[in-house]
């Protein structure tokens, strides 16, 4: 019997895809930067099916590439086509298994689309705060495997911090049921942390217990114009003194990024009359009356304007206005689709200096080139995207300049997207050899045959 027949016996023949027209979307990444091939795409519907598929692959020496929504930006979810491989799509494992509003937890399967988890939490009167522009397509399993960040990290932390328990199929097909819904559990090593952010190289996440939060009854969205990134960092500190931890997002947006959106999307409008070099999109949430929060924010912004800490600001007056401001932010990735992307982090206080130094270093080598700088400034995370399609053949040189500058600032070459294929080699220049050795030892212990997502991360 062929591998496909054996797999069909586990998941049903209709869930083993082999025709090129069926497999194509699974073999190419969202940005169409990576494509490969595999023997087939397998779509199990339960943890026991995943376990049986992985055990079969272990016996046959076939590698497994776990795939969620395939929105990852580092080529982690697509096969490389260099050996016998299957793509294991989790998309049929999309059940919300349970919601416990009194424990503030949701137990969900890995293939649940992030937006569906947010909706389920909302229907239960709670908030699941993980939020990113790909939330209509990316899946919880992918979010946890990449330790996704997104726009609410400032208040709620990254994906890792939303997890209380995990269910994982190990590389030999055994199921680790760590679906505990406990906030306190000091009974030895916290094993779930191994799989969070592991990009599918240590096992397949099949389900998770997620933390839920009270839903803020009041929200405020502000679009703020600024002279410089330095002003943005100073403003965040100033506003936090006034408004405390009500901030869930504080997003820096350069004028070039806004202009890319205005050129790309007919519906988008410049929120302010005058042109400014930098903007911040801030989101706040609180309990109590919405008007009270808006008043507080208005007063704080007016104070900051009087002190010269900002150039101009607009506060959304309705949900629709808030959504249209957020659409600008969410459209930036597709509005500057093909250029040299960097997802980096530095200490928040050093962002202004990094932006200045990286810009100077790039100009010294490549002359004047467009730079689309935007991102989660409140978390020290910038999407620092350089040039246009014409510069792509020189992308390695461009990244070298950016990453060398980053090293001087003690930054990370991957703040939230992971390493995948894209940064697998580059990380060797930045990570302590001892750290790499420890990572390799963990990989060899859990996956001695090297069958889980080979060629990614390490
Ligand atoms: C427009 C856009 C905006 C984005 N914005 C952000 C952002 O703000 N913040 C951010 O962090 N990311 C962002 N991303 C990147 C991407 O959405 C995230 O990395 C997301 O978490 C990936 O989820 P996914 O389901 O698409 O995973 P995939 O792309 O399918 O997989 C990502 C990695 O996880 C592994 N994997 C997937 N599912 C499992 C599983 N069940 N078990 C084990 N391993 C698994 C894969 O093998 C791969 O290595 C953005 C992407 C796009 C396209």
Features:
458 residues; globular; five-stranded antiparallel β-sheet; alpha+beta; binds flavin-adenine dinucleotide; single chain; 34% helix
Kindly describe this structure.
This protein has 458 residues and is α+β, with helices and mostly antiparallel strands. 34% of the residues lie in helices and 20% in strands. It has 14 helices and 18 strands. The protein has a 7-stranded antiparallel beta sheet with strand order 15-12-14-13-17-18-16, sandwiched between helices. Helix 1 packs antiparallel against helix 3 and helix 8 (229-243) crosses helix 10. The relative contact order is 0.12. The mean pLDDT is 96. The structure holds flavin-adenine dinucleotide. The site of flavin-adenine dinucleotide has 37 residues, from strand 3, helix 5 and strand 10.
List the helices and strands and how they pair.
Blueprint: H1 3-11, E1 16-17, H2 20-27, E2 40-42, H3 47-60, E3 63-67, E4 85-89, E5 96-100, E6 105-109, H4 114-123, E7 126-127, H5 140-145, H6 153-156, E8 163-169, E9 175-178, H7 192-195, E10 204-211, E11 213-214, E12 218-226, H8 229-243, E13 247-254, H9 255-264, E14 278-286, H10 290-306, E15 312-315, H11 319-335, E16 343-345, H12 351-366, E17 371-376, E18 381-386, H13 395-408, H14 433-446
Parallel strand pairs: 2-4, 3-4
Antiparallel strand pairs: 1-2, 5-6, 6-10, 7-11, 8-9, 8-10, 12-14, 12-15, 13-14, 13-17, 16-18, 17-18
Helix pairs in contact: 1-3, 8-10, 9-11, 12-13
Bound molecules: flavin-adenine dinucleotide.
The site of flavin-adenine dinucleotide has 37 residues, from strand 3, helix 5 and strand 10.
């Amino acid at each position: 019997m062929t591998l496909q027949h054996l797999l069909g016996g586990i998941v049903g023949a209709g869930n083993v895809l082999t025709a090129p027209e069926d497999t194509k979307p699974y073999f190419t990444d969202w940005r169409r930067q990576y494509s490969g091939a595999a023997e087939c795409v397998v779509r199990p519907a339960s943890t026991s099916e995943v376990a049986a598929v992985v055990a079969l692959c272990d016996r046959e020496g076939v590698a497994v590439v776990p795939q969620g929504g395939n929105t990852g930006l580092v080529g982690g979810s697509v096969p490389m086509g260099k050996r016998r491989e299957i793509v294991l799509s989790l998309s049929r494992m999309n059940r919300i298994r349970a919601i416990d509003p009194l424990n503030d937890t949701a137990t969900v399967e890995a293939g649940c689309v992030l937006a569906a988890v947010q909706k389920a939490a909302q229907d239960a009167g709670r908030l699941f705060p993980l939020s990113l522009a790909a939330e209509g397509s990316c899946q919880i399993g992918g979010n946890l495997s990449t330790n996704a960040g997104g726009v609410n990290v400032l208040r709620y932390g990254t994906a890792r911090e939303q997890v209380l328990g995990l269910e994982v199929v190990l590389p030999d097909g055994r199921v680790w049921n760590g679906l505990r819904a406990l906030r306190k559990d000091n009974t030895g090593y916290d094993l779930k942390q191994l799989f969070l952010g592991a990009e599918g190289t240590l096992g397949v996440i099949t389900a998770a217990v997620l933390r839920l939060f009270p839903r803020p009854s009041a929200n405020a969205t502000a679009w703020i114009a600024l002279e410089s990134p330095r002003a943005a960092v100073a403003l965040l500190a100033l506003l936090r003194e006034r408004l405390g931890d009500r901030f869930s997002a504080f997003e820096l947006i350069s004028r070039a990024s806004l202009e890319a959106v205005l050129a790309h999307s007919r519906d988008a409008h410049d929120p302010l009359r005058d042109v400014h070099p930098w903007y911040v999109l801030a989101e706040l949430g609180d309990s109590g009356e919405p008007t009270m929060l808006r008043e507080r924010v208005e007063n704080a912004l007016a104070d900051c304007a009087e002190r010269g800490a900002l150039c101009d600001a607009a506060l959304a007056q309705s949900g629709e206005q808030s959504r249209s401001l957020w659409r600008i932010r969410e459209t930036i990735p597709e509005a500057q689709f093909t250029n040299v992307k960097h997802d980096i982090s530095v200490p928040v206080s050093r962002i202004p200096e990094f932006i200045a130094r990286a810009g100077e270093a790039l100009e010294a080598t490549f002359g004047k080139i467009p730079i689309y700088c935007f991102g989660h400034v409140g978390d020290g995370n910038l999407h620092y995207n350089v040039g246009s399609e014409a510069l792509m053949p020189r992308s390695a040189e461009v990244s070298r300049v950016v990453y060398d500058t980053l090293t001087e600032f003690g930054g990370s070459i991957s703040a939230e997207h992971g390493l995948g294929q894209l940064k697998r080699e580059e990380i060797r220049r930045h990570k302590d050899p001892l750290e790499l050795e420890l990572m390799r030892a963990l990989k060899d212990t859990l996956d001695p045959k090297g069958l889980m997502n080979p060629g990614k991360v390490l």
